[in-house]
Amino acid sequence: MNGRRALSLVPRTDAKQTLKDFKTDQEVRWCPGCGDYAILAAVQSFLPELGLRRENITFVSGIGCSSRFPYYMNTYGFHSIHGRAPAIATGLATSRPDLSVWVVTGDGDALSIGGNHLIHALRRNVNLKILLFNNRIYGLTKGQYSPTSEVGKITKSTPMGSLDAPFNPISLAIGAEGTFVARTIDSDRKHLQSVLRAAAQHEGTALVEIYQNCNIFNDGAFEPLKDAAVRDDITIRLEDGEPIVFGAERDKALRRTRTGAFEVVNVADVDPAEIVVHDASAADPSQAFALSRLDSPAFEHTPIGVFRNVDRPSYDEEMRAQMDEAVERQGQGELAALLGSGDTWRVD
Amino acid sequence: MTKQVQQLDRVIIRFAGDSGDGMQLTGDRFTQETASFGNDLSTLPNFPAEIRAPAGTLPGVSSFQLHFADHDILTPGDAPNVLVAMNPAALKANLGDLPRGADLIVNTDEFTKRNLAKVGYATSPVEDESLSEYRVHALPLTSMTVKALEGFDISKKDAERAKNMFALGLLSWLYHRPTEGTLAFLEKKFAKKPEIMKANIAAFQAGWSYGETTEAFSVQYEIKPAEHAPGLYRNITGNVALAYGVVAAGTQSGLPVYLGSYPITPASDILHELSKHKRFGVRTFQAEDEIAAVGAALGASFGGALGVTTTSGPGLALKSETIGLAVATELPLLVIDVQRAGPSTGLPTKTEQADLLQAMHGRNGEAPVPVIAPRSPSDCFDAALEAGRIAVEYRTPVILLSDGYLANGSEPWKLPDVADLPTIEPGFAEAGQEDFQPFKRDPDTLARPWAVPGTPGLEHRIGGLEKADGSGNISYDPANHDKMVRLRQAKVDGIARDIEALEVDDPSGAARVLVLGWGGTFGAISAGVRRVRRAGHPVAQAHLRHLNPFPANTEQVLRSYDRVIVPEINLGQLALLLRGRFLVDVIGYNQVRGLPFKAEELAGVIQDVIDGE
After folding, report:
1. E strand or H helix at B284, and its extent?
2. The CATH number of B234-418 is which of 3.30.70.20, 3.40.190.10, 3.40.50.970, 3.40.50.720?
3. What is the rounded distance in angstroms from the CA atom of residue A170 to the CA atom of residue A189?
């Protein structure tokens, strides 16, 4: 329902688009084996599906490895300042309803230097699709811990281990009044694109955390989620409206405890009515938040998919409505009338 | 009783009271009455940063000074002829500025033992001999107001609060001010509280009638309207004029205006004003911080709007990196800095001109930015329009340096004919170009094409990394970087060909000394120059609006005089630029007291230099 609004003002094309249309002539310069390549390819092959005019798509980024992304997208692009992409994109998105505006950022860019802009974009619900590449490390500055690095992490700047308690980006986004909050993984193109699809259709800010492997400074950070031997037992694939059941044998499920948190139970041991049904569009964010808390650095259980997807008017939509209302009430502005407003007197 | 009417050519009145006494409102209303009467005028509000400092204390004193005359005046005046002191703190804080023989209207109701003690008066100065040098009018303003409002269904507190209207009524009578404007104002302001409205009107009228009937005032004064050029006039503050200038930059360019701003004294009123003008296509966005404010403005510029951000010195510091990005990406951006006394938080409500070097150089790398400074409250309109023009036509951030004095001060403004305002050409890049080069420059202006998202075929990427000349692709080539740094500098330098020359005012043609100022000191410098000329000494005056680039003839002007005096409300920032650029040994005159210069002070400085010749 809300997807109609999200892209309704962005001009469409009938011309057939392919992945190639979204590639630029610039040489991609991430390290060989970087997870960013997979995300780039996933985005480039997903965008044709939207059927939007290429010139009406804009990618805005901050600083960091992931923030080179716009240079490789044959759309309009703005590689801006460390942490400031949500602010710059807010100005663009709120003044140009005919654009589909995407923000590409990383864990340092979005959650450390740019944390303030991220939370405010989320609470305002500006029409931005934010792709947060989370590799739990600073890559471009060559290997310092990031706000999502686990406590005790040994890095160049923390030879005795990091003392910082990390952010959980999903919890943070839900706490910041985010209306669309999701997580996916660089290596699972199908899942990644399904999340992009839902994000693109969302009216307002969509935050998509993408677990992304930095094979140089933090290789294997998400290995358990990729290891065929264990991944199905620890990955909880959230499907809206479906009971939360997971495991290679689909033998595990989530049940609410008395405190409101979740516990993992064996499907066979519980009454099916006790199994939690995922409701991404619930007005109350507490279930989505509780789901976000299941994740831990040790990857005991990691939910992926759309945690929260609720309908709330976007900031840009409401800003436009005020502009229209002002004109409706008082008519188009006339400069001479404005200058001569208030107490005036004439000298002959 | 018939009163004697005395003609005056000019008067300086200062209303002073506690922050909660409504002195700014009183001053503002008296100003509007005076403006509509046709006097020339200039105002200086002066208030604490605290919203409500402890009542009756010196830090809580708020004042409003108004200078009005039957002739053209330039400043709010050096020293008041009349001081209205609503309490002992207001008297104590302002008495030092009062010349001997001045009129002093004192609200004796507030001169209680407790209030006197708060400011260190052992006895009431109204009752001892300490005010014998002044013409003291000791009046129980509060109790007279309360008495006049006895029949109204309002609280005693509300009745007492109307004492500022009683004082306004009295002063309006004393100086023959028209009252219709104030009555209409009160009707509108208190439309939702009819009893309060009637009480305030009654207090105002009671003040007027008191003047007419009391023997405390035997003389009424008349100041004839000043001669103004024919036209439609209004009174305007610098901040409102800036807001209107920004709206005009939008209408004259056909671009939607996008203001990203974060509240900061003394610039917030521009945000307030612009937020009322949505029907001009003006979007206002109150951001989470100064950085987001300028970021959103730049993002909007990228999308083809006129991005604007308004701030004061501390905010400008936070915006530096984004202004640098605007330099690198060569996008239009209008940055308005209403300067206040620094460093750091400094004196938020006091004026200063000490952000010039920050505006010129406060960024990493070689990041030239045009800098423009208005000279008077009404000139803020033209300066904003000019800054908008340069930003759009040269694809560059422009910093406009107003200050706290211009922001809150006001003067009559002859409204421009909208048909005569300059037009601004955005000249967007057009769709359908083969092999589009986002950094291929216009040969005349060196501006790059402005190709906005949504234009088919011109998709391109910009950013803070160095770009190859022409193509705009990322380039680490040493020769290219050297070339791009020089091109960006040449673009800003070239604006000198497109701005008015520095005009020199030297009526006698005999001056050997030039006074060169910039920004909000124009009025005080001009008044000082007039005094020196009246005393028979030739002196030339010039005032810079463009600080970067300087007008093309600046060096020639500097070299045409034996001595050049540069008065600034900083420790010599323009002087440093002039010396560095032109190797001219200018003489600085510098004060940083948070207040504008006084005409007399500058006249003395000029005279000393002339005498030393």
Report:
1. strand B282-286
2. 3.40.50.970
3. 20
Cis status, amide bond into B507, omega within 30 of 0: no
* Contacts with B, A 182-221, CB within 8 Å: none
Residue B440, chain A, CB below 8 Å: the answer is no
Cα(B304)–Cα(B307) distance, rounded to whole angstroms?
Answer: 9
DSSP assignment of B471-506 equals T--B---HHHHHHHHHHHHHHHHGGGGGSPPPPEE-
How far apart CA B555 and CA B584 sit, in angstroms, is 8
Across the interface, which of A73, A78, A94 has its CB nearest the CB of B283? A94
Which residue has 């998919």 as its token pair? A305
Choose among B424, B246, B276: nearest CA to B336: B246
Per-residue pLDDT tens digits for B456-511: 999 999 999 999 999 999 999 999 999 999 999 999 999 999 999 999 999 999 99
Query: What are the extents of the domains in chain B?
Result: 4-222, 234-418, 427-498, 504-612
Please name the residues between 46 and 85 in chain A that touch chain B, using a CB distance below 8 Å: 53-56, 58, 60, 63, 70-71, 73-81, 84
Cα B281 versus chain centre, distance: 25
For the B504-612 domain, the top CATH level (class) is: alpha beta
Is B295 close to A90, i.e. CB distance below 8 A? Answer: yes
Query: By the 8 A CB rule, do A84 and B291 touch?
Result: yes
Collapsing DSSP states into helix, strand and coil, what is residue B142? helix
C-alpha–C-alpha distance, residues B310 and B242, integer Å: 10
CA atoms within 13 A on the CB side of B476: 0
Nearest chain B Cα to A61, which residue?
A: B463
CB contact under 8 A, A88 and B291: no
pLDDT digits (tens, 9 = 90+) for A10-32: 999 999 999 999 999 999 999 99
Low-confidence ranges of chain B (pLDDT < 70): 1
Handedness of CA A4, A10, A12, A16 (dihedral sign): negative
Question: For domain B4-222, which CATH number applies: 3.40.920.10, 3.50.50.60, 3.30.1330.40, 1.10.287.370?
Answer: 3.40.920.10
Tell me, what DSSP letter sits at residue B256? Answer: P
- Distance (Å, whole) CA B257 – CA B306: 5
CB B336 within 8 A of CB B308: yes
Task: Kindly give, in sequence order, each residue whose CB lies less than 8 Å from that of residue B253, ignoring residues fewer than 6 positions away.
Answer: B306, B388, B389, B392, B423, B424, B425, B426
Cβ within 8 Å, pair A78-B235: no
A3-237+279-336 CATH, one of 3.90.550.10, 3.20.20.140, 3.40.50.970, 3.40.50.1980: 3.40.50.970
Please indicate, yes or no, whether the overall pTM of this predicted structure exceeds 0.90. Answer: yes
CA A21 to chain B, closest CA, distance in angstroms equals 12
Q: How many other C-beta atoms are found inside a 10 Å radius of the C-beta of residue A29? A: 11
Does B504-612 match B234-418 at the fold level?
yes
What does pLDDT average to in each consecutive run of 10 residues of chain A (348 residues)? Answer: 70 96 95 97 98 98 97 98 98 98 98 98 98 97 96 96 97 98 97 98 97 96 94 96 96 92 94 96 96 88 97 96 96 96 88
Q: Do A345 and B258 touch (CB under 8 A)?
A: no
Q: Where are the domains of chain A?
A: 3-237+279-336, 243-277
